[in-house]
Amino acid sequence: QYIMGIETSCDETAVAIIKNGREIIANVVASQIDSHKRFGGVVPEIASRHHVEQLTIVLEEALTKANLEFKDMDAIAVTEGPGLVGALLIGVNAAKALAFAHGIPLVPVHHIAGHIYANRIVAEMKFPLLALVVSGGHTELVYMKEHGHFEVIGETRDDAAGEAYDKVARTLNLPYPGGPHIDKMAQAGEATIPLPRAWLEEDSYDFSFSGLKSAVINTVHNAEQRGEKLIPENLAASFQESVIDVLVTKTLKATREYNVKQVLLAGGVAANKGLRTRLEEAFSTEKVELVIPPLYLCTDNAAMIAAAGSIFYDKGQRAKLDLNANPGLDITIHNQ
Ligand code: ATP
Ligand code: MG
Ligand code: FE
């Protein structure tokens, strides 16, 4: 079985071909980071235009690498949402045109389901499982009792973890996206600066990062006003420790309460070295299996969309040719 995945929800134009749901045959990602860098973030109009320019090139590259043709594809899986509407539309319309022209079934995929299913490429999923999703727009704990079942047991009430990383990075004058830069600086620093941790209510699996972000900004401004010199590496380390403390503690608590067989890490922030290390330490004494995907499967890619698409294809899910991009698509009502 060959599934083609198409992903254009944000600033990566990506096409992948996956064999039997788990084996990567081609995985092409064209990043637009350089075009958005000078604006300090993703500019939606620019993102859409880049997707238009890049998608045919990326499609051809994927087929060439795989040495396959459209007629070899069993299905085309495409990100339906969430994301930037103009960016999503490019992928959705291309997928519809290709599905129609070549008579291939079309399978819609939720972007975050894709992030979670990136794990399927490196490990067999064992249910029930818990996924810690940490990305540019999402921070949530997702409980899955079987394929296609997504129950969000906790989510951020304000900023996503990645968003907090990017905003803190901007305060420290680091280029976009800031996550990887903060990560590197944190490794060179020490967490000596006291910063808050938002635990919220005792029984809540929700997150909140805007207070932490503001505390970092205030710390920088106060130091500037007093003419004190802050060690940016120490601030990065302190911020990162605060984020990781909360993520790891809540994930561990949910793992025990829900008695899951497996814990999956997903999303762009899953590339964070500090988070990966701390999770591994925390779970080394637990009975549950922890899966952490390689870096290229954490940030946006189409292999994850194809991996999820393969499961939904097997379940018989098909989109009609009136499929529309849905920027606010809900994971709990999707792909069931
Ligand atoms: P979403 O998946 O929620 O729709 P997105 O697709 O824009 O959002 P991803 O591509 O999954 O987000 O992740 C991008 C985010 O990951 C950015 O905020 C980026 O700063 C962050 N990130 C990437 N690498 C690291 C790292 N090493 N440490 C921390 N954050 C990182
Ligand atoms: Mg991106
Ligand atoms: Fe993403």
- Distinct small-molecule ligands in the complex: adenosine-5'-triphosphate, magnesium ion, fe (iii) ion
Run of helices and strands: EEEHHEHEHEEEHHHHEHEHH
Structural class: alpha/beta
Helix-residue proportion = 40-55%
Most strands sheet: 5 strands, mixed
Q: Which strand order does the major sheet show?
A: 3-2-1-4-5
Total of helices: 11
What sort of overall outline do the alpha carbons produce when their principal axes are compared? globular
* Mean pLDDT figure: 97
The fraction of residues in strands falls at 15-25%
Termini separation comes to: 22 Å
Low-confidence stretches: none
| Alpha-carbon Rg, integer | 20 Å
Give the tally of β-strands: 10
Report what the structure shows:
It catalyses: L-threonylcarbamoyladenylate + adenosine(37) in tRNA = N(6)-L-threonylcarbamoyladenosine(37) in tRNA + AMP + H(+). Keywords: Acyltransferase, Cytoplasm, DNA-binding, Endonuclease, Hydrolase, Iron, Metal-binding, Nuclease, Transferase, tRNA processing. Pfam families: TsaD. One of its GO terms (molecular function) is endonuclease activity. With 336 residues, this protein is an alpha/beta fold. The chain contains eleven helices and ten strands. The protein has helices spanning 33-37, 44-66, 85-102, 111-117, 161-171, 179-188, 210-226, 232-258, 273-283, 295-298, 303-314, and strands at residues 2-7, 12-19, 23-31, 75-81, 106-110, 129-134, 139-144, 151-155, 262-266, 289-291. Strands 3-2-1-4-5 form a five-stranded mixed beta sheet, sandwiched between helices. A five-stranded mixed beta sheet has the order 8-7-6-9-10, with helices on both faces. Helix 2 packs parallel to helix 3 (85-102), helix 6 (179-188) packs across helix 8 (232-258) and helix 8 packs parallel to helix 9. It is globular and about 65 Å long. The model has no long low-confidence stretch (mean pLDDT 97).
